Amino acid sequence: MEALFFFGGSIFSLILAALYCKIPNSAFRIPTLGLRLNLEAFPLSFFLLLTLLFSCQKPKGHVFIPAFYHWQTRLELSLQEQELIAQLGVQRLYVKFFDVDWDPELRAPVPMAQVELAPETYTGLELAPTIFITNRTLERTGPEEAPGLADKIYDKIFSLAAQDSALLIREVQVDCDWTGSTREVYFELLRQLRQKLKSKEIILSATIRLHQARFPARTGVPPVDRGILMFYNMGQLQQWEEPNSILNLEAAEPYLEGYEAYPLPLGLALPLFRWAVLFRDEEMIKLINNLPEERLANDPKYKALNNGRYEVLEGTFLEGHYLYPGDRIRMEGVEPGLLFAAAERLRVLPWPDTTELVFYHLDSTVISRFSTEVLDSLCRRIGEE
Asked: ω before 62 within 30° of 0 (cis)?
């Protein structure tokens, strides 16, 4: 694009030069384009306008390409989801292929919640298999066992991908909130997996939590090709007083203040989901996903307290969970206003020129609350300087 601007600007600079310098034959040919222009036939203001248009620099800022996480066990996009993807111009889905968790009976890591693919519902989309690894798995795995675990993860990815004969994998992502005690084995696992994927020209990426992005020297930088900054789940989930553990800009600010460019190229993930946080005897005991607040507000079994909080007045079932009198519920979620406030704060961080904004996650009950215009505007807003 810069070359186009430069080329166009050069052409019209030549035209102006011809006009002002009074080239003997005022009708001259631009060899590159084979055009013959009669300068006397065009007013000076026309040439000035064209010069201005074609010599403008490209807008400053960053380009954020929209993408989605898909976190359900069956990838079968609804018509509503397909329409949203088409309108936004989404090209890639990060699809959870399976979890890796520790089986106490087998005393070994095992794949859980393996994906089922319905290829006819996502034609034309690139899938990036994403694997979630629990910390307890890494706590029970030694560094010397990392190569064997990498082999099993690699084999499982491609055995599941075989459900779609046309699937071409260009990227695999690993999701794990590693700690100081699990970093060594996790990073070794990533090194081994990356080496295997490299033979197929597949890159490896990893999710990066906010504290890991802010303090890379302390937490370590995973040995991968790129990362995705997970800008959510940053509050104190287990504290009743927490205003919104999903997206709490006040809690995020200490990590954003003085933030420097991460050693890896980073994309960004923002939340679209909501949940209800259930408390019993002052302790958080359960999360109930995608619960609309209207379910509580319009039911006499619940007493509204304040700021999306409710108390259970009589025993009842809610989404298959039995609630006792005295249980309390805190509703959490994100609205467009909060997402735009996050975008305003995040846009000044040092992002790559072109990267991804990945929304978590693609689900009809989730995306029904956000219009295409809102999601597209978020991509544009974060990219502005």
From this structure: no
In one-letter notation, the amino acid at residue 176 is C
Nearest to 94 by CA among 65, 137, 120: 65
3-state secondary structure 122-148: CCCCEEEEEEEECHHHHHCCCHHHHHH
Rounded to an integer, what distance in angstroms lies between the CA atom of residue 301 and that of residue 210? 38
Q: What is the per-residue pLDDT across 222-280, written as a single tens digit (0 to 9) for each?
A: 999 999 999 999 999 999 999 999 999 999 999 999 999 999 999 999 999 999 999 99
Give the mean pLDDT of 197-221.
97
**The listed CATH number (1.20.1250.20, 3.20.20.80, 1.10.10.60, 3.40.30.10) that belongs to domain 63-272+333-383:** 3.20.20.80
At 202-213, the pLDDT tens digits run 999 999 999 999
Whole-model pTM: value is 0.84
The pair of structure tokens assigned to 288 is 């109930």
**Domain residue ranges in the chain:** 2-55, 63-272+333-383, 275-332
Per-residue model confidence (pLDDT) at position 61: 80
The C-alpha atoms of residue 203 and residue 201 are separated, in whole angstroms, by: 7
Percent of the chain with pLDDT over 70: 84
pLDDT at 330 over 80: yes
